[in-house]
Every structure is written in structure tokens, then in C-alpha cells.
């Protein structure tokens, strides 16, 4: 597959420590789009020097807004596929060809599955997603989409879904999907993607509430 058709979307906030290595591992597989969510540690400069496409937010807007910006940029670049990938070095870039192979065989979405949920909120969200759609780990940061799903929706996120709204939309519209085991390495960056444990569980529970509103059980 032509690598120019694959966007690898990497939201980043103060990830200068890890971003160059992450980009280096991803570049063979597609266009790397780093969304710098108003970092103060030189993340943008490091990403540019590492040959990524960089979108820089003027102020911190959060994980979901960063994904929105990344998908918008991928659409502007004419990409056919988008894969979301964490900036902290926890994801394995060698899995990207497996995502691409599934796309080439007609799969619309690839949903990563981590070894186990790290937080209570993640466990509860996984129960809902498994009950409603059969998805084991809705909050894994490594997912892949045909851009036609994004174009049908018109946006990636509208309610701070922690990266799940487009997936839930695709599932509801019965786009095809596969789940893939995604091992998680130790973080290289400055802090967890969801914030501290209490804040993280609150954000996740809020996302569950909004998901139930938009995609009720039953």
C-alpha cells in the first residue's frame, strides 16, 4: 500500500522526550501527523526535525481535540486510512503493517486491545462496549479507520469521548472491524494520557455517560 495514503495520528502534550523515537519508528509506514496540544517543552520543534507533519494548537485543548485536528489534517492530505498512536512510546509500531493488511482485505476499523484495563473507569467502559458491540477495549489509544468513516461522520469527537466516538459511530453503522492484541510498554513521557487516577476515572465515567446517551444499551 502507498504509504502516502496512511496517516498515523499522534496527539502529543509535552512529549519531547519520546516523540523523535516514536516518529522514527512510524515513518516507514505512513505520514506521521503530530498534534502538539500547546506543549511547553519543544515537542513541535523535535517533531518537525524528525520529519513529521505538525499541527500546533495555540492553547491546550485536550486529547479529543487533538484527534479532531489530526483527522482533519489527514483528510486535507488525501489519506485513505488513519491510525491513532500514542506519543509516549507505549505502542508497538511493528503492528502498523498488520493494521494496513487488514485494511487491504476490506476491514473498515481495527480496534486495539490491551492486556487488561488499568483503571476502574476503563473496566466499566469495556463492560458497556462488550455488551453493546462486542468490543473488548474501547479506550485503547491504538485504533485504525478508513477515512470514509470520518467523512461520513464529519468529525472525530464532539463530547470528549476519550477517542471513542468515531469508533462507536462506526460500530452503530455496522462498519466491519477486527480487534488486535496491542502490548503496552512502559511510558517514556511525562505523565499518563488520562491524567491522575481520580481525574482519569472521572473523565472515563463522563465519557461512558455521554456514550450511553448517544448509543444506549438495548
TrEMBL record:
Protein name: Glycosyltransferase 2-like domain-containing protein
Family matches, as InterPro entries: Glyco_trans_2-like, Glycosyltransferase_2, Nucleotide-diphossugar_trans
Pfam families, sorted: Glycos_transf_2
Occurrences of domain Glycosyltransferase 2-like (ranges): 8-116
Domain of life of the native organism: Bacteria
Organism: Cylindrospermopsis raciborskii CENA303
